[in-house]
Design brief:
Elements: E1 2-3, H1 13-19, H2 29-46, E2 52-56, H3 60-70, E3 76-81, H4 84-95, E4 99-104, H5 113-122, E5 128-132, E6 134-135, E7 140-141, H6 144-152, E8 159-163, E9 181-185, E10 196-201, H7 203-211, H8 221-228, H9 239-255, H10 257-277, E11 281-282, E12 293-297, H11 304-315, E13 317-318, E14 320-321, E15 330-334, H12 342-358
Parallel strand pairs: 1-13, 3-4, 3-5, 5-8, 8-9
Antiparallel strand pairs: 2-10, 6-7, 9-10, 11-12, 12-15, 14-15
The structure holds pyridoxal-5'-phosphate.
GO biological process, one term: glycine biosynthetic process, by transamination of glyoxylate
Protein name: Aminotransferase class V domain-containing protein
InterPro entries: Aminotrans_V_dom, PyrdxlP-dep_Trfase, PyrdxlP-dep_Trfase_major, PyrdxlP-dep_Trfase_small, SP_NH2Trfase/AEP_transaminase
Length: 359
């Protein structure tokens, strides 16, 4: 099968071998060395000196980690959404009784920096700003660097929280730009098993932690910090997933982070050009397009689920349909993880062509 969904992504053979290792005690020296190395190597891709925490959960855990640790009921959170994952994060904040002001952008477009700036100026009492770096539901990359500039000028010094679940490890994003809370998922560009959410926070986030009144237990960052000091986690970590992540980080560092990032850009350009050449309409304009996945607009009257079923059953290519408002209207093909190459994309595009010719 050619697995082309936007995560979980296929794992390179070396990673598959690494995860078949017998398990080890999470309270022993071998584990501590593994965790120390993984965190050290993750810092290269997070582009930060801040500590990194290994949460045993999927990316959604990053939503709860950020909301529960740093905020209190009634806090004003400005959420900027351009798809389903941004919306879910806003829902999580509402579940913790935050006062969420959601600014929605039309699906297929990115967060507009001018609108962002204007909304920030209208809410001088904002405590948190939530932005999804790569909106996987549609394949849009948001201009986090530009947005960070506006956050820095805000009089209330809100916490800038960024979901980079489906971009970090494949796309250049410096935490040092002014991001306070940043998290990602092991099953995405990291080409590791699902089960880990890797998160980092700024010193400013710790000030917010001190005054936070939200209930917290499993994701309480102070227990992660305490255990990080001895290279352990408070509860049993996803050890096999960590074996995989350790290996994929070794492979990624061997190639070099710049090359990993440029490979994703090349795959994006290649896929988009090839789809256009073959008469497909892309759902997202070039300027907003994601380096890790591409969405194709289906011709009106076509049923997205019929396309994805046929892709899988007839051609062995597993792709994703749309989510939320884009459900049934688009097909998403991922080029996430440096191990995917032109061959896999060609195979997926050939299958799409065959299906289109039958319609
Ligand atoms: C941008 C983004 N945020 C959050 C999530 C949720 O992650 P998970 O499904 O691992 O809980 C995803 C999953 O695809 C995502 O792409």
């Amino acid at each position: 099968m050619n697995l082309r969904i936007p995560g979980p992504t296929p794992m390179p053979p070396e990673v598959l071998e690494a995860i078949s290792h017998q398990t080890i005690s999470h309270r022993g020296g071998a584990y501590e060395e593994l965790q120390r190395r993984v965190i050290e190597n993750l810092k290269v891709f997070f582009q930060t000196k801040n500590d990194i925490y290994l949460l045993t959960c999927s990316g959604t855990g990053g939503f709860e980690f950020s909301v529960s640790n740093f905020f209190s009921p009634g806090d004003k959170i400005l959420s900027f959404t351009c798809g389903e994952f941004g919306k879910r994060w806003a829902d999580c904040a509402r579940a913790f009784h935050a006062d969420v002001i959601e600014t929605k952008f039309e699906i297929g477009t990115a967060i507009n920096p001018d609108t962002f700036k204007k909304v920030l100026s209208e809410h001088p009492d904002a405590k948190g700003i939530f932005v999804t770096h790569n909106e996987t539901a549609v394949g849009v990359l948001n201009p986090v660097g530009k947005l960070a500039g506006s956050v820095k000028l805000h009089p209330n010094h809100p916490l800038f929280c960024v979901d980079a679940v489906s971009s970090l490890g494949g796309v250049n994003l410096e935490m040092a730009l002014g991001i306070d809370v940043l998290f990602t998922g092991s099953q995405k560009a990291w080409m590791a098993p699902a089960g880990l959410c890797m998160a980092s926070v700024s010193p400013k986030a710790w000030d917010f932690y001190s005054s936070s009144k939200n209930p917290k237990y499993y994701f309480d960052i102070s227990s992660y910090k305490k255990f990080n000091e001895k290279n352990q986690t408070p509860a049993t970590p996803a050890i096999s997933a960590l074996f995989g992540l350790d290996k994929s980080l070794e492979l990624m560092l061997k190639i070099g982070k710049e090359r990993v990032f440029s490979h994703h850009m090349e795959m994006k350009n290649y896929t988009r050009e090839k789809l256009k050449e073959n008469g497909f309409s892309l759902f997202v304009e070039d300027e907003f397009a994601s380096p890790t996945l591409t969405s194709i607009k289906l011709p009106d009257g076509n049923d997205g689920s019929a396309w994805t079923r046929e892709m899988k059953e007839k051609y062995g290519v597993v792709v994703a349909g749309g989510m939320g408002e884009a459900k049934g209207k688009i097909i998403r093909i991922a080029h996430m993880g440096y191990a995917v190459g032109k061959e896999e994309m060609d195979e997926a595009i050939e299958a799409l062509k065959e299906i289109a010719s039958d319609k």
